[in-house]
Structures are given as C-alpha cells and as structure tokens.
UniProtKB/TrEMBL annotation:
InterPro entries: CobW/HypB/UreG_nucleotide-bd (IPR003495), P-loop_NTPase (IPR027417), UreG (IPR004400). This is Urease accessory protein UreG. Homodimer. UreD, UreF and UreG form a complex that acts as a GTP-hydrolysis-dependent molecular chaperone, activating the urease apoprotein by helping to assemble the nickel containing metallocenter of UreC. The UreE protein probably delivers the nickel. It comes from the Bacteria. GTP binds at G25, P26, V27, G28, T29, G30, K31, S32. Pfam families: cobW. NCBIfam families: ureG. It comes from Pseudoclavibacter chungangensis.
Length: 291
C-alpha cells in the first residue's frame, strides 16, 4: 500500500483581524471610562488596541493614555470634524484606516475598542466597521431613558446602564431601569455597571471574553442595529429634520442614502460608490457633514 501523498497546498494566510468592538452612547455617559475599565480588566491577558473619536480634539485618547491602562502607542485618535455618527456610520474610512493600521502595527491584536464621539440616542456603528457594539446609558440621564428606544438601546449587542453608584443621588431605581431596558430589547443583554463595583466589572469582563470566543470560533454574526432615526440638524435657517435611510442632498452637489450602496459626486462631475469596508472612499469625514 503506497504512502498517502503529503498535501503541499498554499499555506493558510495568517489573519491579523481583531474583534472590533464599538462603544457608542450619548455625551458623558462613560464610554471612555468603560474602555478604561475593559483595558484594566483584560489588558494583561489580551492584546488590546483603542481608537477614539472626537469632533475637534484627541481629548478621549489623551484621557485614556494618561489613565495608564494601556501602552499609549496602542491608543489612536480619529478627529471626525463632523457629527460623530458621520464617522462611525456614513463614511467610516478614517476609522477603518485607523483600526487596520493599529492591527498591522500590533499584530496579532485580539481586541480593538472603537469609541464613538458622544452623540444622541440614534447613533450606531456601521457593521462594516465593527463586529459588535455596546451602547452606553447612565443613570444620571434619567431612569426613563431606557424606555425611549432607538436602534442602539433596542439592538446593540449589549446595553450598559452605567454609573449605578450615582443612582441614590439622582433618584433612579436601577432594577426598574434595567427591567425597562430589557423589555425594550426583547430580552437582549443589559448590564448595570459601575466602574467601582467589582461584581459588575467581572460581568462586563465575562461578556467581552464570551464575545471574543464566539468571534474567534466563527459563531458570532455581526448585526446591524439599523440606520439612524430621523433627527434634527441646526443651521442658519433654523435647521431641518432628516433620515439616514432616505436619499438627501448636500449643498446641492449630490444626493445619497445612508443604508446601503449609493452613488454621488463630491465635485459635481464625478460619481463613486460607498459599499462598506472595501468600497469606502477616502472622502474625508470632515467633508461629509450633514447640514
Ligand atoms: N460615579 C461614576 N462616575 C463615572 C463612572 N464612569 C464614568 N464616570 C464619570 O462620568 C464622566 C464622563 O465619563 P467619560 O468616560 O468621559 O464619558 P464619555 O461618554 O466618554 O464622554 P464623551 O466622550 O464626552 O461623550 C467623568 O467625569 C467620569 O469620571 C462610574 O461608573 N461612576
């Protein structure tokens, strides 16, 4: 009986792709602090990198670097120059380039945490940028916020009700807020968190590790919480309401939608397609402001 021939096919390419976890939520709810908490809880056992988004500064990146939770080189800032949702949903180019550079520089990176700038209840990440997302509320925003819904509250992979240590001071019933959130999410996970409460931090750590395990094993399927709800943009004429799932015009130059492929020109005579990660154009987020 002849020996079984050895197969000498092409070697398996080494993937440098990390689990990309987005953190979104209204201004000041504790997104940077939550990232610091994750880095403290997992930084010794996982290769972690962080991308922050601010409109005009690198404030959040500087906060995280000064917190000493990670090698400062592993914390990169994207200055969006525009509404935060623009850079995490509409034109993700700057963030995608930043996370790919981070993954290349620190390969093999296991976990990339991408923090959105503080926005409103309607902002969510594009699934072309991240694999999973956490939406962060805090008790100081009021116990009824969880009932207000929106794509992040309803369909993010995890909803965090943050700063529970402040609940007695702002008159919020945390179990009730968690119950309201769980109902709004039809049973999807809700975590009541305080960075000073070891038990809740352990639950956050376990959630991230379980997600990483299902990502590595190929069981995790990224979900899109859905496009932004119609919202208001102020301008010199008093502002207007628009939706991101309907075509609209910028300065009369072009019209496009935000929930899939679309074509538009940036100088009035060229057309190109945005179709997610591969097809995203280098049109700067700053040039892409909804007015
Ligand atoms: N009491 C308490 N305060 C917290 C907790 N987490 C964050 N904070 C405070 O909440 C404030 C806002 O926290 P950040 O982490 O900067 O919030 P953010 O969502 O990143 O803010 P933006 O990037 O400006 O939207 C800071 O003063 C934090 O110290 C917490 O668990 N308990």
């Amino acid at each position: 009986m002849p020996d079984t021939p050895q197969t000498t096919g092409p070697s398996t390419p080494t993937s440098t792709r990390s689990l990309r976890l987005g953190i979104a939520g209204p201004v000041g709810t504790g997104k940077s602090s939550l990232i610091a908490t994750i880095c403290r809880a997992l930084g010794d056992e996982l290769q972690i990198g962080v991308i922050t988004n601010d409109i005009y500064t690198d404030e959040d990146a500087r906060f995280l670097r000064s917190a000493g939770v990670l090698d400062p080189e592993r914390i990169r800032a994207v200055e969006t120059g525009a509404c935060p949702h623009t850079a995490i949903r509409d034109d993700i180019t700057a963030n995608l380039m930043a996370v790919e550079e981070l993954e290349a520089d620190f390969a093999p990176l296991e976990l990339s945490l991408i923090e959105s700038g503080g926005d409103n209840l309607t902002a969510t990440f594009s699934p072309a940028l991240i694999d999973a997302q956490i939406f962060v509320l805090d008790v100081a925003g009021g116990g009824d916020v969880a009932r207000k819904g929106g794509p992040g509250i309803a369909r993010a992979d995890l909803l965090v009700v943050n700063k529970t240590d402040l609940a007695p001071y702002v008159g919020v019933d945390v179990p009730q807020m968690v119950a309201d959130a769980t109902e709004a999410r039809e049973g999807a996970p809700v975590l009541a968190l305080s960075r000073d409460d070891a038990e809740s931090v352990a639950a956050l750590r376990a959630w991230v590790l379980e997600l990483l395990d299902s990502h590595v094993s190929g069981r995790h399927v990224p979900q899109d919480p859905g496009p932004m709800a119609p919202h208001f943009h102020a301008d010199e004429d008093g502002g207007y309401v628009h939706a991101h799932d309907e075509p609209h015009a910028h300065d009369g130059e072009h019209a496009h939608g935000h929930d899939g492929e679309h074509e538009h020109g940036h100088d009035g005579d060229q057309e190109h397609v945005h179709d997610g990660a591969e097809g995203a154009t280098p049109a700067a987020a700053a040039d892409h402001v909804d007015r």
